[in-house]
């Protein structure tokens, strides 16, 4: 065992291939369906929305490894490898026999792991000769990451930012503008779907699902423009596999293997990436590591959602995905973990969860911030509220070990930093933060609006 | 030559000793003087203000290396070694034959190099059995760093934050509070000196010099309490020497040696630390590297100040230091580089500058932000406005190389990140930023209030 705090791989140890977990899954998730016909979508169907290479990645269930394009490898070198850190000080504070490691993806200006997929998506768009991209952002991390990649590869970018976030985080908006992207608070008057949503809910603070609708509408109605998404999609989990591949390489170098891997789960991009390399071992039967998805009690898609076909957006213009969902019309309450407010969950993670490979827990916001403050004081990193969900559960697992005396090895994903979330920290410190949990009735109202696939098919 | 973007030392290559450049200086700077008697201060004189070990370090001109205490070494491992980065992308954008390296000290929650000295100062205070500390902060980086170290070593802390900064940066304040420190906007009603300043200037937005006065007053009037300072002092430059030592070790590992070393200079903590190991070579005559201090045109202590004895604070309660100064009563205009608004400059750097070992340039704010935005887009790191002063000059030197064709090796200090400075970025992007340059008359008014050491001595 090493007594190193931080383990950095060498630059030439940064993975040169992404890993596609679907190639090792015994069963695939159900296919994406066209919202018009109810039939499985093809690469051709996706091409008006996504650039071609990404559309192919989205539907590829057999290619185990994808080469990371050279320009993306070069871009990765600006901020990767990211450190794997042993939380010695947190362990000491908890008096736990457990060993706690975290993979820290926040050491870049986007403040999160989102840059891993942003670089890839902008590169493929550039290669295809596109001139502009659209996207949405909630907490702002994806929008920042994409604006960084767009500035680097010289690509125009419009970001639809959830209105509530844009108002709460003017500085996040300023960062994105510094990198040269246009920001439009969503819902907006710019798109048909935005105007319709505003007409129905004039005072809405918006949602990710609604911002997605607007970004997709602009992409399909603008020449040489495509839409890119920072989570949920299979292509994103593919790109994020670099987190898990690097984590495994770093832990291998000190002869460690995690008993538990923990990640926060909003759309699933971080968790899917973090567990990837270890899940491969599990799927092959050579490991029995536990994988734990942590979600906020305020938006509990895995723990209280349904495994059904649903739209990926509020405006109901995207394909239907079978996933754990609260319904595309579910509007989460104002909650400080802006990145964990999506109504659904990655189809890959949904399938792995449904098949029993992944566990899920939901945690209350005030307990999350309690963990965040303890972690900051011990480890000197100010975590993003999203990441703090994983910290909460890592601490809870370490405290269980304290009771049982088990020396488990825990790995969690520290996806990002909380510099733009100080309003939330202030509210917690002032004792003004509350825990919101949706009622069963609220959830039922969301489920009631799930699409009826049979009806779509027969009406065709 | 390596083609690595980032060079990380191994954890066991983190220096275990700080380097005291005074041991190699041919001449020492003039001694600190008591403001009461005009006589050189002793360790005994400093002990009511500073903890004893730090008072010794402050006055030690002969010990070349100081062992870094084990607990501080352990603390360093949480965020060190910091990366040395080759700015390949910036070089490409500038089409310069120069090689540009930067030492990035912003990869910790304080967002700056300040944590290097904070850890040391809190450790020594703890070891001496003190229970609380006071300090001041301008931009907030030092206050954050110290609150992080205080939380870690379990020490109470009060931070006097320049009122203008506290109001402009409520989130910076929230970070400091997250780590458990008390924040008091300065000038305040808490201290005599604060009340006196408020009486004379009721609407002042404060200054570093004024916050220092308040923090010192509280320290000397509270049992088991001492004052700590994040820049200017010799002890701080000693602790910050780790930046230069690590830079040199990393560059040595790829057979590089800088022709020019560039750092921003407010009180001098970063520049003094960055140049330390290279300055040793220069002082020994084995190198002719150029050292460049970059200061804002709005607060030009080196380029337009006088080399005189002056107070280190506005309230005139600290010892007198001979340094380049604009006068302790100089109130810089509101400027976005909050960390570069100090009226004086480190006595060590002042002496090295006066003796011709260090050059100085002053740069305009809008040109600084122009460089910051270019750097962010190319290198994907959002720099602090302070650090962007060094970037501006590094770019200017690289552009000179483009004209002359010289393949110079440039090293600059990227002291920190700009997440809490987005108001300034927004103002720049909106074209609303102006360049302020103090008039000769304003400077003369500052010089007119310099203390008369002879008069102090003879009045004794």
Layout of strands and helices, then pairs:
2 copies of one chain form a homodimer.
Chain A (H helix, E strand, L loop, with lengths): L5 E2 L9 E3 L23 H4 L5 H8 L5 E3 L2 H10 L4 E3 L1 H7 L4 E6 L10 H13 L4 E6 L3 H13 L2 E7 H6 L1 H9 L3 E5 L5 H9 L7 H13 L4 E3 L6 H19 L7 E5 L4 H15 L6 E7 L4 H4 L1 E6 L8 E6 L21 H8 L4 E5 L1 H15 L5 H20 L4 E6 L7 H8 L10 H9 L4 H7 L1
Helix pairs in contact in A: 2-11, 3-5, 4-15, 5-6, 6-8, 9-10, 11-12, 15-16
EC number (chains A, B): 4.2.1.20
Cofactor (chains A, B): pyridoxal 5'-phosphate
Subunit structure (chains A, B): Tetramer of two alpha and two beta chains.
Salient structural properties:
homodimer, 460 residues, alpha/beta, Rossmann fold, seven-stranded mixed sheet, 19 helices, 15 strands, 43% helix, Trp_synth_b-like (chains A, B), Trp_synth_beta/beta-like (chains A, B)
Overall description:
The structure is a homodimer of 460-residue chains. With 460 residues, chain A is α/β, with parallel strands linked by helices. In chain A, 43% of the residues lie in helices and 16% in strands. Chain A is built from 19 helices and 15 strands. In chain A, the strands form four sheets. Chain A has a seven-stranded mixed β-sheet, with helices on both faces. Chain A has a four-stranded parallel β-sheet with strand order 8-7-6-9, sandwiched between helices. In chain A, strands 2-3 form a two-stranded antiparallel sheet. Chain A is globular and about 60 Å long. The termini of chain A are far apart. The model of chain A has no long low-confidence stretch (mean pLDDT 94). Chain A binds chain B through residues 4-6, 8, 11, 77-79, 89, 107-109, 111, 115, 148, 151-152, 170-172, 174-175, 177-180, 373, 376-382, 417, 419-420, 422-423, 425-426, 429, and chain B through 4-6, 8, 11, 77-79, 89, 107-109, 111, 115, 148, 151-152, 170-172, 174-175, 177-180, 373, 376-382, 417, 419-420, 422-423, 425-426, 429.
């Amino acid at each position: 065992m090493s007594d190193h705090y931080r383990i950095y791989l060498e630059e030439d140890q940064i993975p040169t291939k992404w890993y596609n977990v679907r190639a090792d899954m015994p069963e695939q998730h159900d296919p994406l369906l066209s919202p018009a016909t109810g039939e499985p979508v093809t690469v051709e169907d996706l091409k008006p929305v996504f650039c071609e290479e990404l559309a192919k990645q989205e539907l590829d269930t057999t290619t185990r490894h994808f080469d990371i394009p050279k320009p993306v490898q070069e871009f990765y070198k600006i901020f990767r490898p990211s450190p794997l850190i042993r939380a010695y000080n947190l362990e000491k504070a908890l008096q736990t026999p457990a060993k706690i490691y975290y993979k820290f993806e926040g050491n870049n200006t986007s403040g999160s792991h989102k840059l891993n997929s942003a670089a890839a998506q902008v590169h493929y768009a550039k290669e295809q000769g596109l001139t502009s991209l659209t996207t949405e952002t909630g907490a702002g991390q994806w929008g920042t990451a994409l604006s960084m990649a767009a500035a680097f590869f010289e690509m125009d970018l419009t970001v639809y930012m959830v209105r509530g976030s844009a108002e709460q985080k003017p500085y996040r908006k300023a960062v994105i503008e510094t990198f040269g992207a246009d920001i439009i608070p969503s819902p907006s008057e710019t798109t048909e779907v935005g105007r319709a949503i505003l007409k129905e809910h004039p005072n809405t603070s918006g949602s990710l699902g609604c911002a997605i609708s607007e970004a997709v509408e602009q992409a399909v109605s603008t020449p040489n423009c495509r839409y890119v998404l920072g989570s949920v999609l299979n292509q994103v989990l593919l790109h994020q596999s670099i987190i898990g591949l690097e984590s495994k390489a770093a832990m291998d170098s000190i002869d460690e293997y995690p008993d538990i891997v923990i990640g926060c789960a909003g759309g699933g991009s971080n968790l899917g990436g973090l567990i990837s390399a270890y899940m491969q071992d599990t799927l092959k039967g050579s490991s029995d590591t536990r994988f734990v998805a942590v979600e906020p009690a305020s938006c509990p898609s895995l723990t209280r959602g349904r495994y059904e076909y649903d739209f990926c957006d509020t405006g109901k213009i995207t394909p239907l995905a079978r996933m754990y969902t609260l319904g595309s019309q579910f509007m989460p309450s104002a909650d400080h973990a802006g990145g964990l407010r999506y109504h659904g969950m990655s189809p890959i993670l949904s399938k792995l969860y449904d098949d029993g490979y992944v566990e899920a827990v939901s945690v209350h916001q005030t307990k999350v911030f309690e963990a965040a403050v303890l972690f900051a004081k011990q480890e000197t990193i100010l975590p993003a509220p999203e990441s703090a969900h994983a910290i909460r559960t890592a601490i809870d697992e370490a405290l269980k070990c304290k009771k049982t005396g088990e020396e488990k090895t825990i790995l969690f994903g520290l996806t990002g930093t909380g510099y733009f979330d100080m309003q939330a920290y202030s509210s917690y410190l002032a004792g003004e933060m509350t825990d919101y949990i949706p009622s069963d009735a609220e959830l039922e109202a969301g489920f009631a609006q799930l699409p009826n696939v049979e009806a779509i098919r027969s009406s065709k």
